[in-house]
Every structure is written in structure tokens, then in C-alpha cells.
Amino acid sequence: METAVFYVLATIAVASAVLLVLFRNPVYSALSLVATLFAVAGLFVLLNAYFLAAVQIIVYAGAVMVLFLFVIMLLNLGHSEALESTVGRYRLTGVIFLCALLVAQLTAVGTRQLRGPVAENEALRTENVQTLGKLLYTDFLFPFEVASIILLVALIGVVVLVKRETPETT
Amino acid sequence: MDQWILTLLTFVPVIGAAVILCVPGEQKNTIRWLALLTTGICMVLAVWLFNAYDRANPAMQFVVQVPWIPSFNIEYHIGLDGLSVSMVLLTALITLLCIPASWSIEKGVKGYFALLLLLQTGMQGVFVSLDFFLFYVFWEIMLLPMYFLIGIWGGPRKEYAAIKFFLYTLAGSVLLLLAMLAMYFNTTDPATGENTFNMLVMMDQANHSEWLRAGTIFGRSAPLMLWMAMFIGFAIKVPLFPFHTWLPDAHVEAPTAISVILAGVLLKMGTYGILRFNYQMLPDASQYFSTLLAVIGVVNIVYGAFCALAQTDLKRLVAYSSISHMGYVILGMSAFTVHGINGAVFQMFNHGTITAMLFLLVGVIYDRAHHRYIVFPNDYHEPELRGQLGFGGLWTHMPIYGSLTMIAYFAALGLPGLSGFISEALCFLGAFPVHRTLTIIGTLGVLLGAGYMLWAFQRLFMGSFNERNKDLPEINSREIATIVPLAVVVIVLGIYPAPVLDLIAASLSDLSHTLSAHSGMAANAF
Amino acid sequence: MFEIDWNILLPSLVVAGLVLVVLCVDIIRPDNKGGVSGYLSLLGVGVAIWVSLSLWGRSPTHGLGGMLFLDNYALFFNLIILAGTGLTIFVSTGFLEREEGGRSEYYLLILAATLGMMLMAAGADLIVIFLGIELMSIALYILVGFFRRRTDSNEGSMKYLLLGAFATGFLLYGIALVYGSTGTTNLREIELAVAQGRVYTHPMLLGGVALLIVGFAFKVSAVPFHMWAPDVYQGAPTAITGFMSAGPKAAAFAAFFRVMVASLGDLSGDWSGAIWMLAALTMTVGNLGALSQRNIKRMLAYSSVAHAGYVLVALVAANERGIAGGVFYLLAYAFMNIGAFAVIVALGRKGDENLEISGYAGVGFRHPGIGLAMTLFMVSLAGLPPTAGFFGKFQIFSAAVEAGYIWLTVIGVLNSLVSVYFYLGVVVSMYMRQPVGQAHAVSMTPFARVALLTASLGTLYIGLAPTSLLQMARQTVSALL
Predict the structure, then answer these.
(1) Statement: residue C118 has pLDDT above 80
(2) E strand or H helix at C70
(3) Which of B303, C178, C258, C377 sees the fewest Cβ atoms within 10 Å?
(4) Which chain C residues have a beta carbon less than 8 Å from that of A136?
(5) Which residues from C are below 8 Å from B168, CB to CB?
(6) Does an interface of 3+ CB pairs under 8 Å exist between C and B?
(7) What is the extent of the structural domain holding A72?
């Protein structure tokens, strides 16, 4: 059962990643990215990494994707009327697809619950949030700090690239 | 002084170059005199060396050995034996004479003389190095000044000639580098038990590894392959057929003084290298290739002479005569006899002085007539002159120039009483017992040499005077001053060759005996 | 929890602190156009060099939860990286003034990239190495596109970003597979796992190694992963091109050597063949590519590809001489290459113009000092004595001969012969061609002069008296073997 679910999720992840590249319409691409991210979240669930799954969905599928879509809309890359008509046409497919995903995830969670938690590894326990946090602030403190510098530099970089150049002040 | 003489001789020119670089470029005469002063100091040092050198001692003298890059066992290791001392003297003499010969250079005087002095350092360094790495560094250092001197101050096709010279020689250096690494990793210094670049250690075969004695590389005998790599590296410099094509181009485009150095000293580095490296480090393989050497020597003699016969450009003629004359050196050394090797080294010295004269004389006429065609070629830019004699009857117009030219040409064709005769005779004498047929073919070169030299002389100086040349002034005192010392050397050594032969004899008979002691490698080894 | 050994962190901490100081300066003095930040950065780099030197020679340690090494190897690379950064800052001051692009962020980004490089050299864990690469890369992406108004700068930045991200993917996938097969990302534990055969499946580990090689090959611009280099080098601001060719390349090699030799050295039978191919291809394609270039920055881009090939030869040899030689070569390369770019900056004109090699005609006589320096750098890049480049190459090739890679040495030596042609092409143009048109005034700031002089003297010094630096390079080897 677990193997089967893994393969279903993996297929969805890879297939929608391929579609992401193949679609001409950026909106479709963005949506198939959502599908990929959801499938990957499912894989995390399979591994008992609930926290990561949640983060994956909240941060990537949620926040980041919304941002993506906003940008697409603002730049008017996807033609709105085409969007409406196609969404209408594939509405049913979409619903079925999402339901299938939901069922798959529920099944995965369900089987886990029925079997009970398997605690071979500390990180795999249900309370992996604590473990993760502890690791992040002890063993992996240094990489964590470096990551924060990377974010700082990226932030500055964005400022450099988009800041309006001030006229010469002499 | 014994400790410092060679170091001084090598590095005084660099100091001179540095001083010249500090002088403002407009003060051209100051720069020229500084260059003359520097080379003059070197000449004084060389004369001191000539007196102090112990002629009875065949071993290295004036040795200095200081660590340079210890982790590779690279040392600043210099010294002198009979083979190198003659070359060191020749270098000092030729460079000194090149300074007045360059007096008329007006473009970039500062750079010109600085590079010339740097070149001298490279040449002296090559001849005194006793560390393979040090030798290689000097060998390469010399390339760049030469490249610039041809490329910046050269004739119309200077760029092509310079890059051709550079790439040819560098291709040889690359082989040399590989051979150097192979030698390094297969020589153990008995004193330290580590690999070494010390050439004296490399010359003792007891220090060679098993691989270097009898191993294989790429399915062939290692010592023979290594010998070949070094040989080609040096042969390009000599230059030996078929690696000679850079030489005529370089000579034709180079300014006079640079041609003089190129023919007078640089070519000798190739034969010096063969004698120093191939012969002394791999004597067995040298024996094995003895016939090949003789064949190449004869081909050089005859091919060079035939090419010289066909030239219409005087400088090209001299360049090809150089190729022919270097063939005598190779033929002489190919037999490993005492006479042959002495003759080869003496010929190296004599060719240095004679060719220098020839090029200087070409330079004199070129400075005046702005061309140096014996016969104007068929693509000459003035159609009415095509096929006509460029000069003719100059003897009456420029008698001093004519006389000096006569001495030089006669020396070049090997007239008895002049130095070239003695060394050529020694080369043939040495080679004859071993390579009879080849030597006989080689003597053809003497005949052809007389042919092209006399023919050229006839068309330049004999016959009716060409009225177009009536404005050419006679050779001036500065030019006489550069040529006469060489003429004196040529005449004196032709009558009494002992000063040079005594200098080289002890070391070379040692070398010849070592070589003869090696019976050579089995014929199927390659 | 673990005790923090501050010594281990010290060099990176200095640079990280510097990043923050420069950031604050920009807030306090928003109108300084980068001048003050430049001086501050120089000062900080000097301090970091001093710190690195004072830590030299201690017994190797690691700390911060096994994340960072403090050994001579890391410190030596710190010196290379900081020297590159320092020289770049020297060159940049006048350059930014001329291009009117002076902004404080410029120095901040250079320093951030430097920090990333230092982490790559000192990283004891694949995660840290990866983060170092990212930190460096992000800063470089922005620096390449720093002149926003110029399309080629933008194009270069975009290309670099896309291909860089691609390379990152390979690297991460490689790290994941190595982690999957050994259960750790720590370099020392990977070494132990491989040595003791505690590997999940061997093919998986090898797959991971292969992907790591691809990722690193991108970063050092080895053929066939070099496609980004010419466009990025050409498009980037010239001072940044010089910066990129020295430090980041050295840092990528630092991590590459450490991972391959120290951690995966037991598998060298499996990877040395691949690196052999990479090295041969990189040298050959790089040099042949450079032959036909007319733009000097593009030519030097191909040349930097070729030089990566020479250093890969050292990795193939992977013996004591080889590693010392590779490390030494990267130091020599930093000096001669940044020197060459300093000359390009000096001869350039507003808008980063005058980059055609033919435009250098007559420079040798109009500006003798610059001509002489450029000749020195070209000669050194071509690997002729008595310069740094020659001795560096000599070491690498002698290591390859010692390890028995004769053919690779032959290929390398032939390549350096080919390379002479295009390096001398620059010299030919400077000295032997007739200049066309009006002479342009060349104004070098005192800082740029210092940079040029330092690079020239460094190139000569390393070539003539390499002993002390060679000794240092030898002392780094114990960290890996």
C-alpha cells in the first residue's frame, strides 16, 4: 500500500513538473507547480515528516505560489479571458484531480494512524517539530546562521537590482 | 673572485638593463654608451676568465652551488668546463660587438638595448648552468627578448618571423621540459637519496633508475625516446633539417645585430645542448644514434649549401650557409673521436665569429643601399630592375669594405690559413674513420661553399661598376671597429689555433673517452 | 550543545562583521558613492589576512558541530581569496568612478561573496560547502548584472543565474545521494563510511559522486560545463570579471579538492578516469576556443577555462606534489589574472569600451609601464619562466609525471604551447601593430597603480623565489591526504 502511494505521488510530482515546463500559458505552469509541491508534501507525509509537509504546503504551495500568480496577473502574462474559458472547461477534471489527491493523502495518513507510530529514529517521531528545532539550534546552528546571511544578501541584491537610481547629487 | 665570476658574467647585463630602464628615453646616446659599458665589463670579465681557466683540468671549474627551491632539489648551480668556456667567451665577444652595430637604431632605443642585455643574460646562463631546471629557465628567458627584438625592430614581415621563431623554439622547449621531468624522476642523488636536477649527477649513469637504463615508454625503449626528445628540442635550435625553416625567415627580418647574435650564439646552444645533455647523460643512446647524427649532419651540409646557391637575397644566403656550417658540427661530433669532438666545438666557435662578420657586412651594405639583392628578384617592386644585378664592381668603389668582405668570405669557404679551415678539417678528420662514405659526401659541402661564396663575391665586387651605387659611402670607422676584431680572431686562430683548442681539449678528450667506452645499445632496442 | 572554538570562526567572522559594517556605512552616509566603503573593505580584508596568517601552522581542528575546519589548507585558500578580493577592491575604486556606478552595495556584495568562498574552503560538511557556494553565487549573480543599463551585463547575469541554478541542482542531488548511501553529510564521516564500507549501495554512492563532480565542474567552468563562462565574463563589469576568475575559481577548487581527495579519496579509482577526461577536454577546448577570440575579456574567459584544466590535472594526480601544485597554481593564477584585468580596466574607456585586442595597438610605446605589466601577465599566463605561471605549471606537470599520467602531461604541455599563440597576440598588438586613430589618455588612480604593481611584483616573486610559498603549499597537503 505504502509503495503504491509512493509511486502514485512520485508520478504526479514528476509528471506535473514536466508539464510545468511544457505549458505555454504561465498560469498553467504555476498551477502544475502547485501540483508538484503538493505531491512532494505527500511524500514527506509518507516519511512521517509532517512538519516538513506542512511547511511545504504553507510556504511553497501557499505563500510563494500566491505571489507567483499575483505577478503573473499583474504583468498580464496569462490572458484573462482564455483563463476563464479554460478553467470552465476543465473545472470537473480539476475537482476530480484534487479529490484524488485528498484521498491519497488521507489514505496515507490513515494507514500511518492504524499502524501506529514507528519510532526507529528520533527525527521520525511525531513530535519531529521539536527535534528539528533542537537540531537547527545546536548541531546545525552554523549552517542556519549562514543561511540567514544568504537571505540578507539576496535581499540586498533585490534592492540593488530594482532600486530607482537617484539623480546625481553634487 | 672565483666564486663570483660566473654570476657576475651572467647578471651584470641585467643590472645594466635595469640602469638603462631608469634613463629617460630621449637620451639615446647615454643609453648606447651604458650598453657598451655593460658589455665591455662582461668582456673584461671574460678575458679574466680566459686567463684564470685551468686548461689541464677537465672537470667543472668556478662552481657555485646554492639551494634555490629546496623542495624540488633545484639549485643555483653554475660552473664551467672546456665545452662551455669557449661558448661563454664567444657570447661576451659577440654581444660586445653588437652594441656598436646597433648604434644606428633610433626607434625605442631604451627597450632595444635593455632587451639585448637581457638576451645576453639568458645566453650566458644557458652556458654556465649545471642544474637542469636552471638551464631550462635561462633557455626560455632568452626566447622572449629575441622575440621582441625581431618582432619590434625587424623588417616588413617581422611579426610572422618573430612568432614563427618563437613557436618553433618553444615546441622544442616543450619536449625538453618533458625530458627534464623524466630525467628528474629517474635520477637519484647518491648524497641525499632524493631526485635531483643536478646535471653532474645525471651524467653519472650509476645514478639512473632501472627505467632510464632499460625501461620502455609507449612501447619503445625509454633511453632512446628520451634521447630523441632532447635531440629534437636542441635540433630545432641548431637548426637541423627538417626543423630549419624558421631560420631564414628570422634572419631576413631581424635587424643586423640580432642576426649576428642569432647566428653567432643562439645556434650554438643547440649543439651545446646535444653535447652536454644527450652525449653526457645518455651516452649509450648517443652511440646508438651515431649514424643518424652523421646522416643529419651531411644532409644539413649539402642541403644548406644548395639552398644558399639558389638565393638572390644576400642575407638569406648567409642564413643558409649557417645551416650548412652547423652541419659540420653535427658531422664532427657524430663519430665520438677526439678530433671530431674538438673539431665540432672549435667549429662552433669559429662559425660564431665568421657568421657574425658575414651578417655585419650584409648590414653595412643594407644600411647604405636599403636592399641586399645580389640579383633583383622577379617580383621586385620596380619592374625595370627585375633580373638585374643589385651591385657589382663595388671593389673599386669601396675597397676597405671589399677587403674585409674578402676575409670573411674566404674564412667561410674554409680557406687554409683562416680559422674555418682548421675546424672543418678536424670535423672531417674525426668523422672519417667511422662514417667514411658520409664524410666523403660531406666534403661536397666545402666545394659548394666555395661555389656560393665566390659566386656571390664575384657578383658583388667584380665586373663593371653599377652606376646606381655611386652614392654609397665607404664603410665608416664604427663599422670597421665592429668587424676588425672578428677578422683578427679569424686570422689569428687560423694560423695559431692553440688558444681555443687548449681551452677545450682537456674536457673534450675526457668526454670522447667516456663516450667511446660505451659500446652502444643493442640495435634492436628501438 | 557544543563549545564554540572562536579561532575556527575568526577569519569568517571578520569578513561577516565587515559585511555588516559596510551595510551600516551605507545607511549613515547614503551619498558616499562607495568611496568610504571601499577603504573600509580594504582595511577589513587586511585584518582578515592578518588573522589568517596568525592562525597559520596550528594543528588542524574542526568545530561548530563538525561544520568548519581550521587547517592550513583552509587558511591558504583564505589568503588566495582575500588577496583576490583586496586586489579587486584596489582596481574597483577608479573603475566605479569612471563608470559612474559607484554604490556602497558593490563592496558589500564583494565581501559577501568572499565570505561564501571562505566557507567553501573551510567547510567540513557538504551543507556548509553548499551554503558557501550559494552565498558566493548569489552575490556574484548580482555583481555581474551590476550595471543595469547595459544589456550585456544583464544578459550575463541572467545566463549565470540560470546555469548556476542548474549546477546547484546537480550539486544538491549529488549531496542527497551521498547522504542516502552513507547516512551523513559530514566530510570526515563520509570518509570513514567509505573506508569501512558502510555504504547503503555502491552504485548510489557513485551516482552521488558523479553528480557532485558535475556540480563542481560547473563552478570551476570545466568543459563541457563551461558554456556560461565566455558570455558572463564578457558581460560582467571588468573589475568583477577579474574578481570572478580568481577567488571564486580558487574556492570552488578548494571544495572540489577537499571533497574528492579527503572524503572520497578511497574511491579515486572510480573518479580519476572521469576527471582525466574533464582535464584533457577542459585544457584543449579552452585553449582552442581562446585562439579565435578578438575581445580580450572573452579570450581571458576561455583562458580561465583552460587554466581550470591545468588545475584538474593536479586533481587527477592527487599526490602530495599534485595538491601542493594545484593550490600553488591557484595563488599564482589569482595574481597574474587579476593583474591582467587591472590592465584591461586601466585601458578601458567609459562604458567599459575598448576591449578589442586590436584596440591595444601601440599601447606598448604610449604607456610603457602598462605595456610591460601586461606583457608580464601574458607571459605568466602562457607559462614561461621566470614567472609565477611557469613554476605553477611545472609543479602540476611534474606531479602528473610522478603519478604516471604521461599522456595527460603531454596533452597539457602541448596545450600550453598552443596558448602561447593567443597570449602573445596581445603582446603583438601592443608592440608591433600601428595604432589607429587618436591616442586616448589613460588615467589610473593611485589605488589602481598599487594593484597593478602588487600583481606584477607578486607574479615575478612567485616565479623567482617560490620557496616560502611552496613550503606553505606543502603544509596544506596534510589536511587532505
Answers:
(1) yes
(2) strand C68-70
(3) B303
(4) none
(5) none
(6) yes
(7) 2-121
